[in-house]
Amino acid sequence: MSSNQEKLSVTEKVGYSLGDLAANLIFQTLVTFLAFFYTDVFGIPAGTAATIIFVVGLVGAFGFTPLVAVLADRTRSRWGKFRPWILWTAVPFGVLSLLAFSTPDLGPQGKVFYAAATYTLLVLVYAANNLPYAALSGVLTGSMAERNSVSAYRFVAVMIAQLVVQSLLLPLVLILGGGDKVQGFHNAMMLFAVVGTVFLLITFFTTRERIVPAPEQKSSVVQDLSDLVRNRPWVVMLLLTILVFTTLALKGGMYVYYFQYYLDEAALAAFLQGIGFNAFIAGLNHLLTGIGLTSFQWPEDAPTSAFSLFNAGGIIFMIVGIGFSKKLADRFGKRDVFGAALFLSTLFMLGFYIYPPDAIGLVFGSQILHGFFYGITIPLLWAMIADVADYSEWKNSRRATAIIFSAMLCGLKLGLSIGGALVAGILAHYAYVAGAETQSPQAVDGIRLAVSVYASLPFLACVALLFFYEINKPMESRIERELAQRRAASGALA
Known about the structure:
The chain is mainly alpha-helical and 494 residues long. It has helices at residues 10-41, 46-73, 83-100, 108-136, 144-176, 181-206, 221-229, 232-262, 265-274, 277-290, 302-332, 334-354, 360-396, 401-429, 441-465, 473-490.
């Protein structure tokens, strides 16, 4: 194999990152609003919608994703292994994103069939696009420092997409639809589809694969899987990925209950007034209506409004944390920085249990600091997975980048499923009553435990697991140096 160790241009880093911004405009919308769209906009029964989302999600995680991995690792083209998949799927991804959020005038059974068909096709195309995209990060460069930089650029883009979807999509739906949710969703997804397609094409045209298999490399799927199970850093990263996304799903699903049933509503309203948020929304609406647009439809009740601002603040400071990630990783190594930052973010998450209901400033302050330290870890997780592909090549003289990333994506989806199930299970255990104006002290205590202590346990387990992850800073340097020598000696140029 051969690797060009030149410093990647800012154009290539930005171009690569736009691919994940495109994907996450759709992915974050699916995660956050698909159930709402099916039930409240398209008119599908909640139970049927849940079944479609769950079954298709499992098929995508354990069917489509491994299949794409096997095919991508064995792709041969003048554009490389992974870049052609981005080109092939750019337009279908945009089209299917729009179709999945369309509302054709069909009967009850027709709506169910349409939703299942379009969501299945979208999940298939998403796997065919996003897995090769993720694997591409492992072959853009053999330099681990440059890999840290690329990952940081990428996840700034991801956080921007998350901020747009989680904080601004519903207001955007109301603005673009003139108050009509059906038309608003159609117009918003049309915008996302066009932007996403253009960004994916930019990714294809601005990137280049520099690490390519030597012509003599041949391996079977069985051999690739055998290499995986004997790769201890890969096993550690798989477990770590599951645990990280379990926590993200658990705390993310519980925060809304924390704001609704634990924090004091009057204190939340006073906090929003005190920081000038209400005045800001009023000024923004005055500007929008003054130029003939629909006013910005922000939630009016204090808990919901504060919750949306809480999420936005966390995301913004995650972006700030991502900005520190590369420099810290370059100096101390990914493993040590990841572990330290994850531990510190966990400490601020634990605070949510001890704060009194009227300590709104402390809640927001903890979210900001938690977001900052967790933000440092975000690009490192995926850069470490790419390092695992290097480690496998270093140990076995074979490279199977896509199948390594596919396993991690399966772990991600499994973690999200476990965390989502824990939300429902914990609520049931503590006798939560759906739709009640107030909850019992037992239920409220369960909610406090879930967003703090229970959500912290998987993060702390991750910190412990890192003691078994042997790719520290000295080993990073050794692997990079020796692989560069092997690739140069092989005479294979990219």
